[in-house]
Amino acid sequence: MSSNSKPRILTGDTPTGRLHLGHFVGSVENRLALQDSYECFFIIANKHAFTTRAEKPDDIRQSVIDIATDYLACGIDPNKSSMFIQSEVPAIDELTFFFAMLLPFNRVMKNPTLKDEIRDKGLGDNHSFGFPMYAVGQTADILAFRPQLVPVGEDQLPHLEMTREVARKFDQVYCGVDPQTEDRDYVKAGGLFPVIEPKLGRVKRLVGLGAPGADGNLLKMSKSLNNAIFLSDDADVVQKKVMGMYTDPKRIRVTDPGETAPEKNPLWAFHETFNPDKAWVEETRAAYAGGKIGDVAVKRKLIEVLNAVIDPIRTRRKHFEQRPDDVIDALRIGTRKANEVAEETLALAKKAMKQDYFPRKLSM
After folding, report:
1. What is the DSSP string of 288-305?
2. Fewer Cβ neighbours under 10 Å: the N or C end of the chain?
3. Phi/psi of residue 135, each to 5°?
4. How many C-beta atoms surround the C-beta of residue 249 within 10 A?
5. Vertex 313, ends 49 and 218: CA angle to 5°?
């Protein structure tokens, strides 16, 4: 491990567009809360974006800049946290190859998140060979930094479980760790890789603005489903999206505040998530369920609430949009630090695997 005495975090995003409210409550809030007490690495996984958008390199490049700008706008401090570009850290690719030998092919293809993405994106059997490789690559994204904690949304838990499997298998095969060892003790027992722990956001799965899917459940917020409010949306756009959002015409989904998020009327899922006035939420939900107040009044209140959340982010984003060199500098500094850690991990992994033939030095 590095000389930094803080425990380490690794998390990040695939650049498929700007960040939205689902990203914010699912992971970004945790990153902001933890960046003072943890050594934080935030990956922008641009190579994973090529698994479904290889013919759109310009879009991917712009999305990398957009996400980095969103990070800074949300309050990620490059003096405290290292935000970096995946494709500029070659050790991750080398670890991906080695880790691929520790995972059966069928195990990768049974990853439920991978199966959901193939279904949701309509890929069928036409996905590239590289598409399932991204699930293996994600284990390398994480373990290259030997973190203790990975803040993620609920949909990423299957990827993290596969990462935990890889860490155990590597440590058992190459470091001689007893398979009966408790997960928390793998490094203490001589393993290189910790069996990482996930940290979920306060909202495990924020619903989107649209109607339920074929199974009757509301879909999660997603750019590809066109049901998202972005952290960069201006006030007028937020108003338009909220006024057009789906609400359950039968008002069945509103009566039980204990229901899980996919079962809720999104209007109330959003109020419960973002509205700080809990007394107003409870009182108005009861009036709404009884037909004493309509969608429009509740939506107008939600517009006010969401703009209060997004406005300071918008303001900071405009600042960084006018200073693109500051964004690139933050990425350069973070990527340099990421390479230091990932190269150290790769060297230790090769030593454990008895494949450390020559010394190597990476310069950026």
Report:
1. HHTTSS-HHHHHHHHHHH
2. C
3. -65, -40
4. 8
5. 60
CA–CA distance, 250 with 167 (Å, rounded to integer) = 49
Q: Side chain identity at 217, as an amino acid letter?
A: N
Closest C-alpha to 144, from 84, 63, 54, 78: 84
Nearest-angstrom CA–CA distance, 61 and 21:
22
Please tell me the distance from the alpha carbon of residue 169 to that of residue 163, in angstroms, as a whole number.
10
Spatial contact of 241 and 270, defined as CB atoms under 8 Å apart: no
Taking the C-alpha atoms of residue 285 and residue 293, their distance in angstroms, rounded to an integer, is 9
Third-level CATH fold of 235-319: Tyrosyl-Transfer RNA Synthetase (1.10.240)
Q: How confident is the model at residue 251 (pLDDT cuts 50, 70, 90)?
A: low
In the predicted model, is pLDDT for residue 332 greater than 80? yes
In 171-185, which positions are buried (b, 16+ CB within 10 angstroms) versus exposed (e)? Answer: bbebbebeeebeeee
Nearest-angstrom CA–CA distance, 57 and 54? 6
Query: Cβ distance 259 to 237 under 8 Å?
Result: no
**What residue ranges do the domains of the chain occupy?**
8-204+324-352, 235-319
**DSSP letter assigned to residue 326:** H
What would the mean pLDDT of 132-160 be, rounded to a whole number? 88
* Domain 8-204+324-352 CATH class label: alpha beta
- Could you say which DSSP state residue 24 is in? I
Q: Under 8 Å CB-to-CB from 336, ≥6 apart: which residues? A: 364
Strand pairing class (39-44; 197-200): unpaired
Best CA proximity match to 85, nearest among 327, 317, 362, 363: 327
| H runs (alpha helix) in 35-175 | 46-53, 57-74, 90-100, 105-109, 112-120, 130-143, 157-175
Residue with the larger pLDDT of the pair 202 and 303 = 303
pLDDT at 258 (0 to 100): 47
